[in-house]
UniProtKB/TrEMBL annotation:
<dbReference type="GO" id="GO:0003849">
    <property type="term" value="F:3-deoxy-7-phosphoheptulonate synthase activity"/>
</dbReference>
<keyword id="KW-0028">Amino-acid biosynthesis</keyword>
<feature type="binding site">
    <location>
        <position position="290"/>
    </location>
    <ligand>
        <name>phosphoenolpyruvate</name>
    </ligand>
</feature>
<keyword id="KW-0170">Cobalt</keyword>
<comment type="similarity">
    <text>Belongs to the class-II DAHP synthase family.</text>
</comment>
<dbReference type="InterPro" id="IPR013785">
    <property type="entry name" value="Aldolase_TIM"/>
</dbReference>
<keyword id="KW-0808">Transferase</keyword>
<feature type="region of interest" description="Disordered">
    <location>
        <begin position="1"/>
        <end position="24"/>
    </location>
</feature>
<dbReference type="GO" id="GO:0009073">
    <property type="term" value="P:aromatic amino acid family biosynthetic process"/>
</dbReference>
<dbReference type="InterPro" id="IPR002480">
    <property type="entry name" value="DAHP_synth_2"/>
</dbReference>
<feature type="binding site">
    <location>
        <position position="71"/>
    </location>
    <ligand>
        <name>Mn(2+)</name>
    </ligand>
</feature>
<keyword id="KW-0464">Manganese</keyword>
<dbReference type="GO" id="GO:0009423">
    <property type="term" value="P:chorismate biosynthetic process"/>
</dbReference>
<feature type="binding site">
    <location>
        <begin position="267"/>
        <end position="268"/>
    </location>
    <ligand>
        <name>phosphoenolpyruvate</name>
    </ligand>
</feature>
<feature type="binding site">
    <location>
        <position position="395"/>
    </location>
    <ligand>
        <name>Mn(2+)</name>
    </ligand>
</feature>
<feature type="binding site">
    <location>
        <position position="425"/>
    </location>
    <ligand>
        <name>Mn(2+)</name>
    </ligand>
</feature>
<comment type="pathway">
    <text>Metabolic intermediate biosynthesis; chorismate biosynthesis; chorismate from D-erythrose 4-phosphate and phosphoenolpyruvate: step 1/7.</text>
</comment>
């Protein structure tokens, strides 16, 4: 590794870094970082480049991104059933989009590394007791007691190992036969009997089945039907962790963050002169930046120039999270200015984070109608400007949780307590995720 490459990768240390935990013991943190730096990569540079090429297709208007998973993954959630349920839902959504919208879908899990959270307040108070806020399983525990809320650097090692376990399951499920297109019905088996969205999906799966049988009878059975490409992603929040997992690729001599294929910078850490932008500027993975309603067109342009000065196709994705009430006004100026510059960018809609509110019961929730309205606004804006609505970024889980209201099953605010399990933001359940996929497919068909 040349000194200048290493120097670039550590330049962020001189800059202000938002949202970093106050670790208990800096010596312990250094020891953990050294241990992480000696671990094998979770992903390979060639895979990151392959994803970058697919995101270049998205920026050109030839493919669509489906990115999703938990707001915050948990260590206990790194088990076969939970991972399989999430993947199954992602595969079902992807099939709906591919078939009903006839567009290639780039599948990216918000999985295998999403263990750190930015927080609006550094502390949480309950019944007179004040403790550090929960910052994700990579930092501390969700339980509200002093021991659990201690910011423990050893959790970074556990985050690495849980990411490895999860990614291994994802690789096995997506390559080992489970994701074969002939399994379209199998993914739905446990769901079809008791859900309207499941039955709607079943009709579509029936059509796909007939198409496959027809193709087989014609002697066609392409390899692409037997598995899918799946990529991992998370917010690159904890810079010590991301730095320790950055390696120089032996083929190209360039640095890649091997903790995930795709990394994004959150709305709270995207300062142009901050540590996160500085660090991510130097890694060669495809990256994203979240843009909230306060983003100016100049901010977006400056981020683009800083993070993708060479205008490499597929390198940069803007993930907008404006809120249903704001997207129609807030998004057009950003797109216009960025596109005038001529640089390639993929535009993805996160319809979750601008639409969160507190229900009377105290549960943090989102209305599926608001989520759908923001997605509709995203398509309207792109259609009006002649640009490509490149994808969606969502928080969902494969389980039948009750965290967001609305959807074909009519989940109400009074139902939220029944199965509210998220460690952070409210997630769409499986039925709501499928409802969303059907709507997006419809909007896509209309706009193309
Ligand atoms: C998130 O994706 O969970 C998140 C915190 O988003 P944002 O940075 O857009 O607020
Ligand atoms: Co979230």
């Amino acid at each position: 590794m040349s000194t200048s490459a290493t120097g670039d990768l550590d330049a962020w240390r001189e800059l202000p870094a938002q949202q970093q935990p106050d670790w208990d013991d800096p010596d312990e943190l250094r020891a953990v970082a050294a241990e992480l730096a000696a671990q094998p990569p979770l992903v390979f540079a060639g895979e990151c480049d392959q994803l970058k090429a697919q995101l270049a297709d998205v920026a050109r208007g030839e493919a669509f991104v489906l990115q999703g998973g938990d707001c915050a993954e948990t260590f206990t959630g790194a088990n076969a059933d939970a991972v399989k349920n999430k993947l199954k839902t992602l595969l079902q959504m992807a099939v709906v989009l591919t078939y009903a919208a006839t567009v290639p879908v780039v599948k990216i899990g918000r999985m295998a590394g999403q263990y750190a959270k930015p927080r609006s307040k550094p502390v949480e108070a309950r019944g007179g007791l004040e403790l550090p806020a929960y910052r994700g399983d990579a930092v501390n525990g969700l339980d509200f007691d002093a021991e659990s809320r201690r910011n423990d650097p050893h959790r970074l090692l556990k985050a690495y190992h849980c990411s490895a376990v999860t990614l291994n399951l994802c690789r096995a499920f997506t390559k080992g036969g489970y994701a074969d297109l002939r399994q379209v019905h199998a993914w739905n088996q446990d769901f079809v009997a008791h859900s309207k969205s499941g039955r709607r999906y079943e009709r579509l799966a029936g059509e796909i089945d007939r198409a496959l049988t027809f193709m087989k009878a014609c002697g066609v059975s392409p390899d692409e039907f037997h598995g899918v490409e799946f990529y991992s992603s998370h917010e690159a929040l904890l810079l010590e962790y991301e730095r320790a997992l950055t390696r120089i690729d032996s083929l190209s001599g360039l640095p890649y963050d091997v903790s995930a294929h795709f990394l994004w910078i959150g709305e709270r850490t995207r300062q142009l002169d901050g540590a996160h932008v500085e660090f991510l500027r130097h890694i060669r993975n495809p990256i994203g930046v979240k843009l909230g309603p306060g983003t100016s067109a100049d901010d977006a342009l400056a981020l683009m120039k800083r993070l993708n000065p060479e205008e490499e196709p597929g390198r940069l994705t803007f993930i907008t999270r404006m809120g249903a009430g704001k997207i129609r006004e807030a998004l057009p100026p950003l797109i216009e200015k960025v596109h005038q510059s001529g640089a390639p960018v993929a535009w993805v809609c996160d319809p979750m984070h601008g639409n969160t509110f507190e229900a009377p019961s105290g549960h943090k929730t989102r209305r599926l109608d608001d989520v759908l309205d923001e997605v509709a606004g995203f398509f309207e804006v792109h259609r009006a400007l002649g640009t490509h609505p490149g994808g969606i970024h969502i928080e969902f889980t494969g389980d039948d949780v009750t965290e967001c209201v609305g959807g074909a099953e009519g989940l109400a605010e009074g139902d939220l307590h029944q199965r509210y399990e998220t460690a952070c933001d409210p997630r769409l359940n499986r039925g709501q995720s499928l409802d969303l996929a059907f709507l997006v497919a419809e909007l896509y068909r209309k706009s193309s």
